[in-house]
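In the design runs reported in the main text, the only information available to the sequence generator was the tokenized backbone. The following block is the verbatim input for one such run; it is reproduced so that readers can re-run the procedure and compare outputs position by position.
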């Protein structure tokens, strides 16, 4: 990854990381709840839902315009441009966008069949996939603690798989529920590949990667993910069904469209946060944050949608939390060991006077 932009300064990167984290939390926790709300109250268009998971991409364009204005006026960068991507990076972003569109479909299918409190536990397994692909693609290093976390998360998802009938929604067949589980696991695996792939794209860009360029990459990714979903909607005649579905929506026609618009907006909070976190830290950290937010989303689903919380979910949740604690303890210990092993001449003095 090439450097040299003002956006690479520690203070700016810290601010970007904090704002990205806030956006990521809002998108990651709100998106599954709102998507499930659509399906609970009469929505059944999976391709429409998958398209909405990226269709808010014009919001990223607004962020890019605001960032450009800030760079030109406050930072005095008169050479700043709105679009800066070279063809190599554009093609890479298009490829990631198509994969994202496929992942969105798998996710939408899964959440249409599974309670949120179950689907988020299955999605937690993405950390295992992210870890594996991060090792292969970006040479991510692991400690025994991070390996332990991956194993625990994998076992937690396996516990859920052994009890696929316990929280099956009323009126849903065992086959539909099982397909939802498999599709959610597929989405988890695909996203586990996409996250390190985005980081690899940054590394191989052969141009300076700054926050505006990160947003431009996310713009292309979400644009082509939307095009992927739009093709599915056309084939499935979803556009013709929207008005009819809105009239029959349990919460009313107006709220139907509000749900669709808010879903598109929340998806872009997720996308912007994701791009910023990978830019400032790593794809593995983004995967960890997704997993760490699992208990928050699960508790909200149980409170808002009165979902069941059986013993296997409790076991899976405990294993997941155990895995998170193990990972973070390992990261803290690694940081301390690294600091202690630095030669004295490499340490930054506290007093320069």
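Verbatim output:
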């Amino acid at each position: 990854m090439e450097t040299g932009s003002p956006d690479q300064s520690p203070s700016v990167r810290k601010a970007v990381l904090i704002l990205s984290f806030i956006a990521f939390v809002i998108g990651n926790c709100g998106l599954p709840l709102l998507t499930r709300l659509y399906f609970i109250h009469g929505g059944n268009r999976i391709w429409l839902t998958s398209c909405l998971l990226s269709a808010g991409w014009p919001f990223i364009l607004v962020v890019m315009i605001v960032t450009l204005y800030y760079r030109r006026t406050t930072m005095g960068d008169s050479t700043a441009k709105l679009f800066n991507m070279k063809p190599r990076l554009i093609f890479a972003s298009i490829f990631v966008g198509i994969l994202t569109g496929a992942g969105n479909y798998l996710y939408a299918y899964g959440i249409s069949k599974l309670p949120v409190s179950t689907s988020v536990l299955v999605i937690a397994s993405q950390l295992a996939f992210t870890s594996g692909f991060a090792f292969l693609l970006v040479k991510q290093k692991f400690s025994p603690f991070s390996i332990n976390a991956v194993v625990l998360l994998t076992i937690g998802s396996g516990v859920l798989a052994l009890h696929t009938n316990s929280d099956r929604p009323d009126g849903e067949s065992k086959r539909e529920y099982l397909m939802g589980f498999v599709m959610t696991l597929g989405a988890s695996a695909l996203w586990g590949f996409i996250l390190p792939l985005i980081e690899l794209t940054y590394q191989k860009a052969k141009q300076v990667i700054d926050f505006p360029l990160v947003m431009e990459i996310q713009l292309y990714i979400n644009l082509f993910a939307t095009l992927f979903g739009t093709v599915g909607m056309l084939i499935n005649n979803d556009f013709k069904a929207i008005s009819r579905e809105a009239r029959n929506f349990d919460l009313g026609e107006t709220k139907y469209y509000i749900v669709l618009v808010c879903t598109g907006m929340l998806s872009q909070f997720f996308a912007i946060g994701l791009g910023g976190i990978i830019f400032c830290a790593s794809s593995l950290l983004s995967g960890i944050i997704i997993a760490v937010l699992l208990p928050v989303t699960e508790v909200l689903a149980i409170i808002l949608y009165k979902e069941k919380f059986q013993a296997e979910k409790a076991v899976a949740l405990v294993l997941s939390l155990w895995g998170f604690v193990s990972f973070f303890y390992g990261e803290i210990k690694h940081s301390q060991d690294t600091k202690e092993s630095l030669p004295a001449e490499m340490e930054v003095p506290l007093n320069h006077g």
